[in-house]
Amino acid sequence: MNNISNQNLTLKGKKVLLRVDLNVPIKNGAITETSRIEKIIPTIKLLIEKEAKIIILSHIGRPKGKIVKGMTLEPISKKLSSLLNKEILFNKNTINEDTLLEVNKIENGSIMMLENIRFNEGEELNDAEFSKKISELGDIYVNDAFSVSHRSHASVEGITKHIPSYFGLQITEEINALKKITSKIKKPITLIIGGSKISTKIKIINNLIKKFNNIIIVGGMANTMLHHTGSNIGKSVCEKDCGSLIKEILENSNKYNCKLICPEDVVVSKNMESNGENKNLKEIDEDDMILDIGTNTISSIKKVIDSSNTVLWNGPAGYFENPNFQNGTKQILEIISQRTKNNKIFSVAGGGETVAAINKFNKLNSFTFVSTAGGAFLEYLEGKNLPGISALD
Fold it and tell me: Do 371 and 379 meet the contact criterion of CB atoms below 8 Å apart?
């Protein structure tokens, strides 16, 4: 991989166009979660150390080529500045004829952040002329935004056709972690996968079932598996038209000798706000809702994780937002966390709800790697080529 940590790469005085993903949640003008900002700091510090002129390209939201006041990067620029304890020049204008003049004024080791790149119509269209236009602002391009590398956008893919291009530190770490759960695997390897819909993750399951030893299905996805294999799930969330998908998963698990594990007991309630009751599958009533995994299931999951060398987790075990139904998710976190701390497993977690659960229980540093990439993370697990990665490879 062409990486900016390459000792032979001279960056002093070079204008480095650094593509990052600063699409962080903002409520009432305040940033509510900063992990994506924090993850790019090592790359920025390396570029400062190498005395490069840093020009940050990023986005927030989907303004569709129009200037949207609530989607400015200015508050994010200020937050990054405070985290770095270093001034960041913020360029409020969309990219125009004067942008190059302004970029040329910055000094070695300084940082300028350009306004939301998606305010420019050519960005999401991956317009060839716009790609060339932004490439002319720098001498070198660095992609440190894995989370948008599944997009064929100008600042992700198009720009690489016009300027020497490299991987940043964060994207390199992400790719290396994902390789260890997809191609450079240390077996036995286990996938814990949850979420509401099995139909949205069938491609992930069918791609990984060929390589994994165990797949543990939890959450709403498990309800669908249980329903289509003959268990009563009451009035639980379920996809009723997924019979063919379930058949496909079962056939592939036999074909590739991958063990499928579904809940053997669950926590149910009559509604989402009441207290839960642990029940075996045969005890579920017609008006019960499955909202978490049960104690026996947690014990079974622990045995599987304890015998694994690698674990990938995507999707909570239940309705963890309610304390009455958070135990399954919390216990999985604890089990993986302890094994990781003791250097017993290589653990990777990713996906929006998974990261939310990890943050809720303050376990961000308890995994070998936590991906905040969302769509790119899932597409990589499906085995798709990501345009931003392919362009640099």
Answer: no
